[in-house]
Amino acid sequence: MKRFTSLLIAILLFPGMVFCTQDSVKNVILMIPDGCSTALLSMTRQYAQYHDASYTSLPIDAYFCGMVMTHCSDAPIGDSAPTTSCYVSGQPSQKGFVSTYPVKTDHDLYPIDATRTYQPMATVLEAARILKHKATGLVFTCEFPHATPADCAAHTYNRSKYGAIAPQMVHNHIDVVIGGGTEYLTDALANDLKQNNYQVFLNDRKGMEATKTGKMWALFNKSCMEYEIERDPAVEPSLAEMTQKAIDLLSQQKEGFFLMVEGSKVDWAAHDNDAKTAILDFLAFNNAVQVALDFARKDGNTVVLVLPDHGCGGFNLGSRQSNSGYSKLSLEEIMKPLDNYTRSTWSVAEMIKEAEIDQIPELMEKYYQIKLTEEELDRIYHAKDFKNSPIAKEERKEASLTKTIARIVYDRTYFGTTTYGHTGEDVFLACYHPRNDRPNGVISNIEVNEYLCRQLGISGQLPALTESIFTSHTTLFPDAKTITIDSLDKDQYRLTVQYKKHKLVANSYDNYVTIDKQVIPLESVVVYMKKNNTFYLPKELREKLLEK
Fold first, then answer.
1. Using CA atoms, how far apart are residues 60 and 278, in angstroms rounded to an integer?
2. What is the pTM of this model?
3. pLDDT tens digits, residue range 69-84?
4. According to CATH, what is the number of the domain 23-315+420-467?
5. What topology is assigned to 470-547 in CATH?
6. Are strands 302-306 and 427-432 parallel, antiparallel or unpaired?
7. What is the pLDDT of residues 111-129, one digit of tens each?
């Protein structure tokens, strides 16, 4: 009511003012720099300016419009799985939950209905395709079953269950998938894609680039893709190139598209407190943002929404090294040490694990221009995961080798951190809209979902879609003659429903069921939740079984 009254007053006072409409747009591009704090945003901009004085702003700078409160359903500091889950489903959830309704606790920050625990939650990607017939795509630099891409197209209470997540993503009718994780695309899953007219490219940059039309999965590296600081352009495409390819393919769909792009490993570098690696990955993400903005401005019917899922690492431009004299430090004094750092702390740690003990000082000098002190070398020996250390295992109580190296490197700089984990501050929000219909101020993660739904023309429809495609088998078939659930392997399960003389068989994470051996294709995936021993299937299956 207040919003309506304010709008009416504004119309009366300023009759010539042009107001934004709330019409949906054709395309929505959601871009997430995972784990990116506002401090890292500032650090990245200043790093870019240090290297090029004419570089006055990042591509997203002109489109900042607010902040987002992002958290779990029961904790102020978010985990990647439930934070992006809320963006795409509208439902706050808890640690490890991938677009799945949370468990009720005694410390919830948001009202939770205990009767819905473990129910899969329909996402904007699923709704854009099912309700609006839009093409859908995912681009990322982690492995494809990882939390953020999984949030868009899979459902589980445990983000580590890749054996349950990967088949859901393969079977969820996503038109374009580009990122890491070849080892998680089994031969069977790859064959499923090919049988459904997908072009599949594994470590094949040229194949990806040559694709001009159609559906495509292109994956690089066994697990995640390389950090930008170590990426070989001849082998792996950049995030900007992957974004451009996804847009080129998806924009051919006349009904439009939904695309999620994640700068996945900004978060990973932040977890390691590796400032330069995080900065370069965030710059790579900004290049992808530029690609999306260029398309959106030219297209005139596309929204680009940019926001992190949470902060990570507690980065600061300023540390104990700058306790005094901080206001006299030049940009060059702050940034120049980074010029000497040529590898991520993770990759150098992996080298040290395989090296001879006497090679450690040489590696640190080669990749960081650092001469180790005896005390620093001793800290490396005490890293808890340094198996070749000359000291006994029970004495190795430092952080991981990766994090120990980061501390040695960045203690020489003016870059500070507070944690190896996530942080709970509000995150930045940027948005391009062709008619300037943008969210603004400090908004909640739920309101992010509401904005996405409005732009896709599906406002208020996610709850109904959830009930339509994810109904428990006990609700669907209360009068069945027999119901059995069998384990096929550690990740796969089979539901068999006997109703009168007819039999329905559903395998977990497939996009079809069989009724009396007749294959019934589904627009969604069948989800099994082991925690409550429940299958979730479309409501329409009851009618199809009764029709028999």
1. 17
2. 0.94
3. 999 999 999 999 999 9
4. 3.40.720.10
5. Copper Amine Oxidase; Chain A, domain 1 (3.30.457)
6. antiparallel
7. 999 999 999 999 999 999 9
